[in-house]
Structure formats: structure tokens, C-alpha cells
């Protein structure tokens, strides 16, 4: 019989698929890695497993332990399912502006969600960072993984995401394109691919960061943007600036328009950071030839963004599209 011992064993091993429509006029092969096929629905399952397993090995998480992290997004889902399978409780700290639906997802996995007060400075003990520090210290057996600084996060990508891409492309990948939030993906995957290809006749893999316009990683000043999960307004420990060779700033409008094209033309319903990565990947691929292989990592599914990126009214209200007349009625032009 062919089955996994636990859902945790199904994390990783995601497939690559070629883009065929949005790549019109491009000679290079453009492949995308579908991280929404992880059991928790995002790339963050990978770091969740490694952070918890490393904490167990180091004796920081013991039977009866409690995982405490300030997150309401994909990392929370990954931690919730891995913690549950390994017999730990999980408590997530979030802020009121986070959609009720995201909290409900975490609670559905059996996790506890604490909502801190709104409008509190990051340094305050009442910020969601502050509350999570306090809970991790006060709850018996509490452990805070801290995805922004935990070396297990980039290591999980060095050990899994990077080797998977190298093997699946049979060592022919020429460019890796990824968004960076905590930086774990670019640091771990990029470092592995550059090392493994260092002596290759065609030269090492080039690592490209796709960054929201306004984020510090591509020279911005931390100006706000709508695309979620990527970009930062401060530099964070797990982002190694030595790994990327190029950075491309991408606007929200470009990212969201690409999400809609990926859904309608490629059958890929993916989130804003995936639209961002593909936009940058196509900009890179335009300059390349038929022997080049560009791989973009798509971190999560579009299901979590149906009320935003895939909602015409939300797009219009936020200035990302306009209603145009067509022969059959009206449609959103993005
Ligand atoms: N996209 C989404 C949707 C994410 O949640 C994250 C994680 N913050 C990323 C991209 C970026 O990944 P990383 O934190 O590894 O840089």
C-alpha cells in the first residue's frame, strides 16, 4: 500500500510546471514551483517542520510543549499542523486588522489565537511580538520559533527546496526568481543552487529577488503596498543580502494583473506574491535565449485572496482596474 505515515511527511516534493501562455514571445523556458500543493497550502510548511524538529532535537520543545508565534498567515498554518501532529499545542498572536477568516483557519486546526490591541508600536510589550515573547516565557513548555531569525528556516530551503529544483531541472536551471519576506526562501534555496552550480560550464545559477515596489530589499523606504507575505520595511536576520544577484521591484498592479492572468490562462490560482514572482521572472526571461531555464517559486494559493485580488470591486476600489464595456457587457480591465 502506498501512503504517508502522517500529513507531515507530505510536506515538500512539489512539482514544477511550464508556463505556456503568459510567456508569449519569450524564448527561455519559464517554470514555476507550486508550493500551494503543500498540505497546509503554502511554502511555509517546510520551515514549520524544520523549526519544530530542530527545537525537539535541541531539547527546546519537550512533550507537552507549546509553540507560540506571532503570525496569522501561512507560517501559522504550517506550525499548527506540524505541532498538532507531533503532540504540541499551538498559540498564535495576531492583530485585529487580520481577517477573521485567517484566525478561523488556525482555530480549525485546533490552535489558540490571541488577538492583541490595535495601533501598538512594535517595541511595546503589548505588540503582537511583545505578547508572544511574554506567552512563550510564561506558558510552561512554551517555545517561540521566530521565523525571522531561526536558522532552521533558510536551512529547510537549503535542504529541500533547492535540491528539488536542481534535480527536477537536471541541473539546467539558469535563474531562480523568488520573493523575500522573512528571507528564508531566497537565502536557503538561492545559496544551495549557487553552491551546487558553482563549477558548471554555463556558470552558477543567478538568483533574482522579486520585491514589492517600496520594500527595503529593492532599495525602497518601506512604503506600504498591498501584496502580502513579501518585502519588508526593515532588514531581517534570515535575509542574506549576499545571495541575490539581481532585484526587481514590481508594483501591486503588475502583481495582481499577473495573478489574474495565471488563473485564467494557465489554470494556476495563486496569491499575490506568486504574481509578483512571475512578473519578475518574465522580465528576466525576456532578455534570455532558448537554452535558459528560469524557475519562479509560487508560495501560496489564490484561495486566500478571493475577496481581494480576484474580487473586481476590491480591485476597482483600490485603483487596480477599471470596468470596461465589451460586446457582451462589462468586464474588469486590470
Ligand atoms: N509569499 C507568501 C504568501 C508568504 O507568506 C511568504 C512568507 N512571508 C513569502 C512569500 C516569502 O517567503 P520568505 O519568508 O521565505 O522570504
From TrEMBL:
Keyword match Transferase: yes
Single Gene Ontology MF annotation: cysteine synthase activity
Reaction catalysis annotation: O-acetyl-L-serine + hydrogen sulfide = L-cysteine + acetate; L-homocysteine + L-serine = L,L-cystathionine + H2O
Any one of the GO CC terms: cytoplasm
EC number: 4.2.1.22
Superkingdom, natural source: Bacteria
GO biological process: cysteine biosynthetic process from serine; cysteine biosynthetic process via cystathionine
Keywords annotated in UniProt: Amino-acid biosynthesis, CBS domain, Cysteine biosynthesis, Lyase, Pyridoxal phosphate, Transferase
Keyword Transferase in annotation: yes
Enzyme class name: lyase
Cofactor: pyridoxal 5'-phosphate
Leader peptide range in chain numbering: none
Pathway of action: Amino-acid biosynthesis; L-cysteine biosynthesis; L-cysteine from L-homocysteine and L-serine: step 1/2
Family: Belongs to the cysteine synthase/cystathionine beta-synthase family.
Protein's recorded name: Cystathionine beta-synthase
Source species of the chain: Nesterenkonia alkaliphila
Highest classification ranks of the organism: Bacteria, Bacillati, Actinomycetota, Actinomycetes, Micrococcales
Residues of the full protein shown: 1 to 334 of 514
